[in-house]
Amino acid sequence: MSYRPSKWIKNDQYPASKRSSKTIHLISRIVLTIIVFSYSTTAAQEEWVVGRFSVATPGNQLPNEWEPLTFKKIKKHTRYSLVRDSGQTVVKAVCDGSSSGLIRHVRINPEKYPIIEWRWKITNVFKKGDVTQKAGDDHPARLYITFEFDLKTANLIERAKYKALKLVFRKTTPAEAINYIWASKAPEGTMVPSPYTSQSMMMVVQSGKANLNQWVIQKRDIHADYMAAFGKKPPMISGIAIMTDGNDTGESAVTYYGDIIMKSKIAN
After folding, report:
1. Would you state the pLDDT for residue 265?
2. Cα angle at 202 between 201 and 205, to 5 degrees?
3. Handedness of CA 177, 183, 187, 192 (dihedral sign)
């Protein structure tokens, strides 16, 4: 009885060209998977999502990870809720001579993520709004950036200014703050200290009625803006807030805020 190895050795059923083709196909799939995974990981590292309101459920009062930002001596607060607008979930602010915001406490390196991008929509401006006066320090839309305070490196003057800021902020007191505002009258590009404290800089990025009832996308370089405002490199970012306020003028506003994303220079 003869032994027939062809019954057990199957390689002869698959020519070398086909085996090679299957191997190349398998390798290609592995390489593609690695590339997609690497791209997704890199993309995630290039963005820091501060507020992804668009994926939230309308009707909830506050977005996840956000909390009220209130101020001493101000008892009437702006109302915030999640609503649908233009097919997406956004934050709606209703102000009636009131003042308060929403803040997310974070710890973000502005050198790694210097770019902030957000969108907002206002429905009116304030007749008495004046970025230079306490009596007019109301704006239909603001986006705050607050920065950490380091007692170990602060000099006496900086410590004194820090104590002044404690009169404004109820909870975590920042070293400095940048206010990106939609001003009622001041021209776009205006940069002035807050009438309440020189440690909070007001930067006008939109102004007036030209874009009323329209979604406007904003993009700013926080690192560059901090350098321009305070003449030094920024410390860690401690918080990001949105606010619609009318307590100084007694006026009312309805404003909408969309997603807020921080990005690296590479992503930008």
Report:
1. 81
2. 135
3. negative
Cα–Cα distance list, 190 to 33, 40, 44, 219, 225 (Å): 49, 38, 34, 16, 12
Over the stretch 24-78, which tens digit does the pLDDT of each residue have? Answer: 666 666 655 554 444 444 445 799 999 999 999 998 778 889 999 998 888 999 9
Joined together, the tokens standing for residue 202 give: 């007001």
Which of 74-78, 147-151, 154-158, 244-248 comes out lowest in average pLDDT? 154-158
Per-residue pLDDT at 2 exceeds 60: no
Report the pLDDT value the prediction gives residue 40, as an integer from 0 to 100.
42
Closest by Cα among 244, 249, 251 to 81: 244
Residue pLDDT, tens place only, 156-167: 666 666 666 555
Q: In what order do the strands lie in the sheet with 177-183?
A: 67-69, 99-108, 237-245, 139-147, 177-183, 200-207, 191-193
pTM above 0.70, yes or no: yes
Q: How many residues does the chain have?
A: 268
CA distance 251 to 148: 32
For 64, 67, 83, 203, the CA distances from 257, given in Å and listed in that order, are 15, 15, 10, 18
Q: Which CATH number fits domain 48-263: 3.20.20.210, 2.60.120.260, 3.40.50.720, 1.10.10.60?
A: 2.60.120.260
- The whole-angstrom separation of Cα 180 and Cα 104 is 16
Angstrom CA distances, 33 to 26, 29, 47, stand at 11, 6, 22
The ranges assigned to domains in the chain are 5-44, 48-263
